[in-house]
Design brief:
single chain, 208 residues, alpha/beta, Rossmann fold, two-stranded antiparallel sheet, 35% helix, Alpha/beta hydrolase, LYPA1-2/EST-like
Length: 208
């Protein structure tokens, strides 16, 4: 489906009490990539899944990078604001509450940037294999938003020091961060699904 500036998929909620999820794919993914994951994490949630608008060698991403692990931070900021505008328009169009972002890799990085640049856009986030998106982020007030950060102990792309720094950055901004390091690499595992499902059911209960 097109419109609101991003090609995207939308699936309405099966359970009005479940939080809507904003699904943000990794490099080379698209708007279909994380629909299955979203359903496994929260089966009753509305799913909003945009396709990244930047192409790297033909592969969709949410922002440009200069090299692996080196981000074009000016582009990060611009694309995060574009994504925030998309979410605001989609909420009005589909009648959604503020969503919980579920982002993998590049999608997790743009979700982290969105939290820091426009704290009101998201109700919380599940960040899978995320890195610090901005070397000099603005001072944000995340007001106890719940964030689950799942990192891979053997991740060749995200150094442990970087994910720990991201956890500290989000905590310092006022978020309630649950950071777990799993005995895996960069790819997702069954543990990611199980932990995310348990976390979102508890976060949802606290919000109710």
């Amino acid at each position: 489906m097109t419109g609101t500036a991003f090609i995207h998929r939308f699936e309405p909620a099966g359970d009005a009490g479940s939080p809507p999820l904003l699904l943000l794919h990794g490099t080379g993914g698209d708007e279909n990539d994380l629909l299955g994951l979203g359903k496994m994490i929260s089966s009753g949630s509305a799913l909003l899944s945009p396709r990244g608008r930047v192409l790297e060698h033909g592969m969709p991403r949410f922002f440009r990078r200069l090299a692996e692990g080196v981000f074009d931070e000016e582009d990060v900021r611009r694309r995060a604001h574009e994504l925030g505008d998309f979410v605001a328009e989609a909420r009005q169009r589909y009648g959604l509450a503020a969503p919980v972002a579920v982002g993998f890799s590049n999608g997790a990085n743009i979700a982290a940037a969105l939290l820091l640049l426009q704290p009101d856009v998201l109700a919380g986030a599940i960040l899978l294999r995320a890195m610090v998106p901005l070397s000099d982020p603005p001072k944000a007030d995340l007001g106890k938003k719940p964030i689950l950060l799942l990192s891979g102990q053997a991740d060749p792309i995200v150094p442990a020091s970087n994910s720990a720094r991201l956890a500290a950055l989000l905590s310092d901004a006022g978020a309630r961060v649950d950071h777990k390091v799993l005995p895996v690499g960069h790819q997702l595992s069954q543990a990611d699904v199980t932990l995310s499902r348990n976390w979102i059911s508890k976060a949802d209960a606290k919000a109710a």
